Amino acid sequence: MPFKTHRIAVLMGGLSAEREVSLNTGAGVLGALQARGYDVVGIDWAPGTSLPRLLEAEHVEVVWNALHGTPGEDGSVQGLCACMGIPCTGSGILASALAMDKVASKRIFESHGVPTPAWRLIEADVADPVAALADFPLPIVIKPSNEGSSVGVSIVEDRAQLADAIALARRYHGPVLAETFIAGTEVFVGILDGAVLGSVEVRPSTKFYDYEAKYKRTDTRYLLPPELPADVLARVEAHALAAYRALGCTGHARPDLRIDAAGNGYVLEVNTLPGMTATSLMPKIAAKAGMDYATLCERILASAR
Ligand SMILES: Nc1ncnc2c1ncn2[C@@H]1O[C@H](COP(=O)(O)OP(=O)(O)O)[C@@H](O)[C@H]1O
Ligand SMILES: [Mg+2]
């Protein structure tokens, strides 16, 4: 494995709404790399600290990026590392920025023939956003373009709830978009170095895979492999890989798809810095493929550019 003699930093925490999740990811990765004998330090990029100074103070030569959300997953930290000459795990600047932005991602998916739910941008200056969606069929998913962890996402079944859902989404990063709700199942595909590692179907006990179901509840069910006919799963994984390639991703990533009752898969987004605690989806997928957690962390480290 490369970087055996380098000074590695697991970069975690950060300034985004997903700070706590990132600290958990970082602690897991740090422990795994320490156990494998790497010269590794954890860096908590906390509010009020300077990231370039933290990296310099620790004489960091490689960054294992365990940040989630903005800034960190969006190309900014990738850009800083590039400027400092420090290889960083995960996708590069452009792919990270495109993947973090759901509007930009959807435009790329559409131009590459990657299926994604029908959508409409709700411009910030539009006087009556509810009227602008009058012809958009229910149920409608309202979400902020640049968030993660289901923060600010609402599923609207009654037009009377639209104004509140839009107001909620507007509190977060980026413009707001409306999307056709895809009734059916939800599948996450693990991709490592341009190849599909496997997939997991998630069945939340909540109305959708919201923040609660992702991090707080113990009754979310994970099916490995997904309970889908083999041909449907093969198509879903092909769409996931096409989405990863369309955005120009490298290293690891975890596209998020919905599959309707007819077996049609739609890519919601590509997560370029997926959760990596020992019980997160990506390690679950790797384990099913016969790759243990520490090996996955090492493989991701080896993909640093
Ligand atoms: N078009 C959709 N159809 C059905 N469910 C959706 C749709 N969009 C989002 N959801 C639900 O909301 C969750 C979060 O939405 P997602 O677009 O993946 O944003 P995030 O970046 O917050 O994960 C999804 O995991 C899914 O459960
Ligand atoms: Mg998602």
Characterise the protein shown here.
- The longest helix is centred in the C-terminal third of the chain and has 18 residues, at 230-247.
- The chain has 305 residues and is of the alpha+beta class.
- Helix content is 34%, strand content 23%.
- The mean pLDDT is 96.
- The relative contact order is 0.16.
- The protein folds into 3 domains: 7-90, Rossmann fold; 98-115 and 183-272, ATP-grasp fold, B domain (D-amino Acid Aminotransferase, Chain A, domain 1), CATH 3.30.470; 119-180, ATP-grasp fold, A domain (Dna Ligase, domain 1).
- The protein binds adenosine-5'-diphosphate and magnesium ion (MG).
- The site of magnesium ion has 3 residues, from strand 12.
- Residues 117, 141, 143, 147-151, 153, 179-182, 186, 208-209, 256, 258, 268-269 line the site of adenosine-5'-diphosphate.
The SSE string, one letter per element, is EHEHEHHHEHEEHEEEHEHEEHH
Largest sheet strand order: 10-9-8-11-12
Uncertain runs: none
The count of strands amounts to 12
Please give the oligomerization state of what you see. single chain
CATH H-level superfamily of the largest domain: ATP-grasp fold, B domain
What is the CATH C level class of the largest domain, in words?
Alpha Beta
**Which small molecules are bound?**
adenosine-5'-diphosphate, magnesium ion
* Arithmetic mean pLDDT: 96
Taking the sheet with the most strands, its summary is: 5 strands, antiparallel
Number of helices: 11
Q: What CATH architecture label of the largest domain applies?
A: 2-Layer Sandwich
Q: What structural class do the secondary elements suggest?
A: alpha+beta
